[in-house]
Amino acid sequence: MLTSLSKSSIMKKLIFFATFLFCSFSLVSQESLMIKTETRYWDAARTFAGYTLFGTRGKTYLIDFEGHVIHTWNIGTNPRFTDNGTLLDAVGGNPSNQNQWKELDWEGNTVWQYTESRTSYHGHHDFTKIYNPKLGDSTFIYIANKDLTATQCLNAGCNPANNYDGAQMDAIVEVNRQGTVIWEWCFFDHVVQDIDPTKSTYGVIANTPGRINLNLRGNPVKSDWMHCNSLDYNQSLDLIVVNSVHGEFYVIDHGNTFVANNPVSSIALAASSLGDFKYRFGDPAKYDQGDPPSVLDNWEKATAGNKQLGGSHDIQWIKPGLPGEGHFMVFCNAQNLFELTPQSYIIEINPFLNSSGTNTGNFVNPPDAGYNEVNSPDPNLMKEKKYISKQIVWRYSSKNNTSFYSTIGSSAQRLPNGNTFICSMNDGHFFEIAPSDTMVVWEYFNPMTRLGIKTVKVDNYPTFNGVFRAYRYTSDCPALFGHDLTPGNTMTGNPPDYLTPDDLLTMVDNEVQPDPVNNILNQNYPNPFQTGTTIDFEMTKPAMVTVEIYDFSGNQVKTLFHKNIREGKYSLTWDGRNDNGMKESSGMYFYILTADDQRICKKMISIN
After folding, report:
1. Does position 2 have pLDDT exceeding 70, yes or no?
2. Is 578 found in the same domain as 487?
């Protein structure tokens, strides 16, 4: 049986959460300039059980849903577990520049490493270990910018009006366990141009979708020209997919261009027509089979044309056995997508669909599949209608376009229960959504910033606490099975502090009214504060007034004021201490003024 004290405590918490709702704090929205870090919400019944792996500021963390650290490694650029149970990552902490990669065991010992020693190759962004069925062994593939001379560019048919000093094109390099290059594919071997008929690369762009146009409008070949940022391997098809940040991804034939134990023949086959794209998706105007983005007659508006992707990252095949297996999934950051109000999307593509929606079992050129005209779901998003490829079978975005917008990086992962796990790089924001209602079932903000670990992320430039990607793994995966997974402290050292579905249900209280219009509660100042803050309020009639301080979990920490007073202006100060005289920790707090049956709530931030 509940005691009167516990009943009172529960009632206070219920009232707080109801008032908390009217403070307009959203679980998902990042409209606030202050974000409390670590786990913010967890629906244990709907999440896919496992652990989250991510790298930040040169360190890799494995955490549970509550944010407890399970294990760490002293490396942290773009880490992931391998099928062999090791941690694979690039050395150096910068996804854009990486020429050395390492595999570490659970204790952090190096079990394999590879260094790109060729000065004309510059590794960056993505890599993976694969099982090469023709070789019968595991190998390592990675993206590298390959230097080109101006003479090479001009001889290939690049427009001579441009300067090609420092030009580069991406290559995909494969090395064996001994670190020997055994296969290589490069965009420069698969180009077409239509300005110089004397060159072997001359052709009709629209008739050559398997090659990249050397003379793209406004984008001549230059340093890091393609800026590929992700790749994936499909072992059953023996194909590789690689994504360019400019809004396209390309499927490349690995199996038919690889000869076991013959690197010379393999590289030659990869450079031949056998290495031309088997499929490409994202921007058909780049091969003259679609409409490019354009400014409309009212030049304050624009259309994306048939462009489907912009600034995209983390291309992948959805793995066998998962919902959507065999489809592509990509994080569309939506840079350069020409939306009046941009937002990021997770996009799932079935490349085998034709215009009637039939799964042909073979790659279908996206323009041949056609487009659906789609209007914005809400006028407040202020978007023009779009032409969405009929091969897009699922697309997720938040209702509020800014809730997880990320200009760079980011990732998405389909989980066995149908949920999708998302990492939005700009704000180090991880969340898991359910497929039926796209409800967020877990949410976390990385507390590691450029200035160290913070309990609150204040307004700052993108990637202040950024995470390039994050992954979810189960306890029985080879890297975790048999190891001690006992939870340690959280990254901040604070106890977990998050909401659950029960908290959401208790927020509804019909007796609680929105902010009254007659009494006035001002925003505290300074805010954020360290040593103390001032709270001003104004009463329009005599009343019994109470001002209380609550922490983020709804626990009352301080009764600041409780008196019968006349109408007039009043000023209070809070030194950050609770009713027991102890200093409260850094974080978000709420101060609530109650006058008779009226209640007003505002937020404030304490930074110790």
Report:
1. no
2. no
